[in-house]
Design a protein that fits this description.
alpha/beta; 291 residues; 11 helices; two-stranded antiparallel sheet
Length: 291
């Protein structure tokens, strides 16, 4: 982009050295891993990952594909761009100049007799409608949306013109995510966050806390952090959630009732839990979620 001081350039770098992640390596708690592992074994339906740009959504979907990837399962992805190269998966890259968009590409994919389809992103009503149709007709569909939380994906679909009864019937599981830096294992040391921070997070009375913070060393380039992990909230579309979708409840109402019923551990809860275990700091967690 041209600026008054010259060209401005941003690079988006993808680290391929670590290979494809597994569900266990994403940073989910065991209960959330089990929820997703159960849902992706269903014969058809939709799995949605939500979050802002750069929150690791594609990495999470590839972790799910890694679980499903077997020679007898026909998997096709439609991406912009193709970020990881995976054996035994047919990967398609968009080419808008040639008329290959998410919507047109998804129509073509459906004629290829796939069992699992990954669509890089659902951006418009046309793509959403085709993806829902695919999930209805015996396909497992994985995709991403830009929403702030898991329940927000439900209302976004309805806002796109998808009927609530279709949304309630095709969704299997939704998960929202963020990325936070993890404490450097070489220089992390115990510390006590300020009282105001503890009170804001509701951790002022927490027991067995192991708050840690990196002091900075050669290994972490004196930042105190080395590596990243995910913060997650996983919402399974069970009978209670389906009923709320049909009643056109708001995302806030769905989240509130799911938390009250013990069916949802929010991003904020996950962030606090990781800080309690010394995986990250409260300051870093606050940069990713609303306190």
């Amino acid at each position: 982009m041209p600026t008054i001081y010259g060209e401005n350039v941003v690079f988006r770098l993808l680290d391929m050295s670590g290979g494809i992640y597994t569900l266990d390596r994403l940073g989910m708690v065991r209960a959330d891993v089990e929820k997703i592992a159960t849902m992706i074994r269903k014969p058809y339906g939709m799995i949605l990952s939500t979050g802002p740009t750069g929150s690791g959504k594609s990495t999470s979907l590839y972790a799910i594909l890694n679980e499903l990837n077997r020679p007898d399962i026909h998997i096709i992805t439609l991406e912009d761009p193709v970020e990881y190269r995976v054996d035994n998966i047919r990967q398609v890259q968009l080419n808008r100049k040639a008329g290959m968009t998410f919507a047109s590409g998804l129509r073509s994919i459906l004629r290829q007799d796939p069992e699992v389809i990954m669509v890089g992103e659902i951006r418009d009503q046309e793509t959403a409608a085709i993806a829902v149709q695919a999930a209805q007709t015996g396909h497992r569909v994985l995709s991403t949306l830009h929403t702030n939380d898991a329940a927000g994906a439900i209302t976004r679909f309805i806002d796109m013109g998808i009927e609530p009864f279709l949304v309630s019937s095709v969704l299997l599981v939704l998960f929202a995510q963020r990325l936070v830096r993890t404490n450097c294992s070489y220089c992390a040391e115990p510390y006590m966050p300020p009282e105001k921070a503890l009170a804001a997070w509701g951790l002022d009375k927490a027991e067995d806390a192991d708050f840690r913070r990196g002091r900075g060393c050669y290994q972490c380039l004196n930042t105190g952090y080395k590596g990243r992990t995910g913060l997650f909230e996983v919402l399974v579309n069970d009978e209670m959630i389906q009923d709320m979708i049909l009643k056109k409840k708001s995302a806030q109402e769905i989240t509130r009732e799911a938390v009250a019923a013990g069916k949802l551990r929010t991003l904020r809860d996950d962030a606090a839990g990781k800080a309690l275990k010394g995986i990250t700091t409260l300051e870093e967690a606050a940069s990713a979620v609303i306190v």
